[in-house]
Amino acid sequence: MVGGEEGRIPMMEVAMRPPEVFVRPLAHDEAVALKRRSKESTHFSTRERAAILLASNTRMSAPEIARMWQTDESHVRKVIHEFNERGLDSLDPDYRGGRPRRITAAHRARIVAVAGARPDTQGVPLTRWSLPRLSAHLAGEGIEISTAHLGRVLAEAGLSFQRTRSWKASPDPDYEAKAARVLSLYERAPEGGVVVSFDQMGPISLRPTHGSGWAPERRPERLRATFNRRHGTRYGFGAYDVHGDRLRLRLRPRRAGADTLAFMRTIRSAYPRRIRLYWIQDGLSANWTPAVREFAAEHNIELVPIPPTPATSTASRPTFGRSTSSWSPTPTTSIGMPSPTPSPATSNTATDLTATDASPPSNASSPSPPDR
C-alpha distances in angstroms, 121 versus 110, 128, 144, 314? Predict the structure, then answer.
C-alpha cells in the first residue's frame, strides 16, 4: 500500500501488459496448411510468415516473435493483420521492385505478328526470317530485343522455325465416292463376286548384283555394270484376289492395251462364268481401251477405277512389294481405312492359271477411267 490513509481504499501500483495483436482463431485446415508451409515452402518469406502466425496462435506477443525471428515488431503486426483480413492468400509474397519490363505486351504482339508473316509481304527482300534479321528489323521499328530473348518470346507464343509444306487435292471431282467404293470392296467382298486388284510393274530386267568376297588388297573382283538386253525387258502383270488371298502373275513384253486385254482374258478364265469380277485398276490409258471396256461388259466384269490422288495417284492402289516368298500386290490406301495384307506364311501365291469355262453372260457397265 502506497500513500494510504486510514479509513480509505488502499491504492496499489500494478504493471499492466500493453494490448497486443494476435492472430484470429485458426480453423483446422488453416493450422495444417500453416504448419506445412512453414517447413516446405520454397520462399523464405512464406516460411517466415507461416511461423509468425503459428507463434501468434500460441499467444506470443509481437515483440517476442520479433526477437525470435530477428525481425521488426511492425513487420510481425503487419503479417498478423494481413492474415486476419486475407487468410492464407497473405502468405504469398507480392514481389515488387526492379525496373519495369522493357518488352511490353504490345511489343510481344507486334513481334509475333511480324514473325508470323513473310518478310517479302512487309517490304523486306527475304523469303523467311532468321532471328538476327528479325531482331534487326524490329530494332528499326523501335523494339530493341536480343536474338536469345526473341527466340523465347516466339516460343512462348507457339511459333517455331519450320520448313514449308505443300497440300494438294485430287483433280477428280468424284474422288470421295470412288475412293469409298474401292475401300468398301477391299473391306468386304460382294455376294457372288470376287474383288481383283490389278496393276503392272516394270520394266523388269536382269541387273548385276554386287557381292563381297576375299581378294588381294585393292584388287576386288570386277563385275560389269549392266547386261546386254538382246531380248528386251518384261513387264509384270499381277491380279490379286483380295479376299481369296491369291496372286496371279504374268510377264508380258509390253504394257499396251492388247497386253492388258490378254491378261484380263486369262484371269477371267480362272473363275466360273456366274461369278462377277470387280476389277480394281488405276487410270493408265492401256487399262481403259475400248477393247478392254467391251470385253469387261461382255464377261461379267465391273471395272472399278481408282481415283487419282495428289502428286502420286496411288491412294487405294494395288502396288507390288517384295515379300520373303514371292511378289505380292498389296492394296495400300492413304484414306485411313485398313486394306487386307496377305501374310507370306499363309499366302496361296500362285503363278499358274487354270482355265475354266468362261462363256459371256450378261453385260456390265464400266465407269469412266480417272484422269492420269
Answer: 15, 10, 22, 37
